[in-house]
């Protein structure tokens, strides 16, 4: 969405994205939008602020998509930051429920049950 | 520079928007349709959190380019993915992603459909042509989907059977009407997708 107050690039983000990610060589692991991220260690003062923010907000698990939204950073930038945090064992990445060509009945029935309670 | 006091980096979920459970896993459904068709409205109607936006580095790509006939009342265009969340139970979190159907956004689709349960194609009967490519694309990718016709008050009313043939949908694909503003209506659209997925899974088991 490109409402005026949500454009993170116009002002207030003077740091180029390649600085935030630590350079173009950083390898992003295979994160899905709904991979859940859970903090495993406290943020430290010397940490990069974006990474410290991730550790603060993921005390309870949040999806990569939510981290991206709350930080106002593109998904691909967030995955690079998360790769470093996973490598350092500061966060845990919980993979989504695997969905084959056809999802399992049990999974679908759980979703149906949950939706009916809405 | 005092980064720590930056507003952006203090951002995070409200306490009530935090997940309560460790050990939960994510699963997703994609809502796809043209600009102004009501994807974000639908996400917001059923989500337990206010809809959020995640984006790739393509901000404002559509401004001045995208033609939005019949939906002039909409001022902002979705060039990113709006999404919401439903905690199904302690172990399962369902995410709903709304994504534009236009061809130049399809490069995003690799990631977005990876591991998705299925899709809801949201249709505006005033601009039904937007859906042809979307439906072809979903069929090519073997993403199961249902078609939900968003019942705009000023839109022409067609019998669902006519829409089915206009969209060249196979008889097995569910087509329903819904009101994207209404929680129960959107829930029912998602339920119809889940029930359809169950029938596909059952057919697969007996095959």
Distance between the termini of chain B: 64 Å
Looking at the structure, the CATH topology of chain B is Rossmann fold
Write the element-wise H/E pattern of chain A from the N-terminal end onward. HEHEHHEH
Assembly state: heterodimer
Distance between the termini of chain A: 27 Å
Mean pLDDT across every amino acid position of chain B: 82
CATH architecture of chain B, by name, is 3-Layer(aba) Sandwich
Would you kindly provide a written description of the structure presented here, covering whatever features stand out?
The complex is a heterodimer of chains A (118) and B (207). Chain A is mainly alpha-helical. Chain A has one domain. Helix content of chain A is 39%, strand content 8%. Chain A contains five helices and three strands. In chain A, strands 2-1-3 form a three-stranded antiparallel β-sheet. In chain A, helix 3 crosses helix 4. The radius of gyration of chain A is 17 Å and the shape is elongated. With 207 residues, chain B is an alpha/beta fold. Chain B has a single domain, classed as P-loop containing nucleotide triphosphate hydrolases (Rossmann fold, 3-Layer(aba) Sandwich), CATH 3.40.50. Helices cover 29% and strands 22% of the residues of chain B. Chain B contains six helices and seven strands, in the order αβαβββαβαβαβα. In chain B, strands 2-3-4-1-5-6-7 form a seven-stranded mixed β-sheet, with helices on both faces. In chain B, a hairpin with a 4-residue loop joins strand 3 and strand 4. The longest helix of chain B is centred in the last third of the chain and has 24 residues. Chains A and B meet through helix 2, strand 2, helix 3 and helix 5 of A and helix 1, strand 1, strand 2, strand 3 and strand 4 of B.
Any key phrases for this structure?
heterodimer, A: 118 residues, mainly alpha, 3-stranded antiparallel β-sheet, 8% strand, B: 207 residues, alpha/beta, Rossmann fold, 7-stranded mixed β-sheet, 6 helices, 22% strand, globular, disordered N terminus
């Amino acid at each position: 969405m490109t409402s005026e107050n949500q454009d993170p690039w116009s002002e207030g983000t003077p740091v180029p994205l390649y600085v935030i990610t630590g350079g173009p060589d950083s390898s992003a692991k295979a994160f899905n939008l709904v991979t859940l991220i859970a903090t495993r260690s406290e943020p430290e003062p010397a940490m990069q602020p974006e990474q410290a923010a991730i550790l603060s907000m993921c005390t309870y698990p949040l999806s990569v998509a939510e981290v991206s939204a709350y930080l106002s950073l593109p998904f691909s930038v967030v995955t690079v930051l998360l790769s470093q945090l996973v490598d350092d064992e500061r966060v845990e990445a919980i993979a989504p429920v695997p969905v084959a060509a056809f999802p399992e009945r049990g999974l679908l029935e759980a979703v149906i049950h949950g939706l009916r309670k809405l | 520079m005092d980064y720590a006091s930056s507003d952006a980096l203090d951002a995070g979920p409200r306490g009530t928007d935090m997940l309560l459970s460790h050990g939960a896993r994510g699963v997703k459904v994609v809502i796809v349709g043209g600009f102004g068709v009501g994807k974000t409205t639908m996400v917001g109607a059923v989500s337990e959190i206010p809809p959020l936006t995640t984006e790739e580095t393509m901000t404002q790509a559509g401004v001045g380019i995208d033609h939005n006939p019949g939906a002039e009342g909409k001022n902002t265009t979705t060039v990113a993915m709006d999404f919401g969340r439903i905690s199904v139970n302690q172990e399962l979190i369902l995410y709903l992603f709304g994504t534009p159907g236009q061809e130049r956004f399809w490069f995003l689709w690799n990631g977005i459909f990876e591991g998705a349960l299925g899709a809801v194609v949201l249709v505006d009967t005033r601009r039904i042509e937007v859906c042809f490519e979307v439906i072809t694309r979903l069929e090519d990718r073997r993403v199961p989907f249902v078609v939900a016709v968003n019942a705009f008050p000023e839109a022409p009313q067609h019998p669902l059977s006519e829409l089915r043939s206009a969209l060249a949908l196979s008889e097995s694909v569910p087509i329903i009407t819904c009101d994207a503003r209404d929680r129960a209506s959107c829930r029912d659209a998602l339920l119809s997708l889940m029930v359809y997925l169950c029938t596909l899974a059952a057919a697969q088991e007996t095959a």
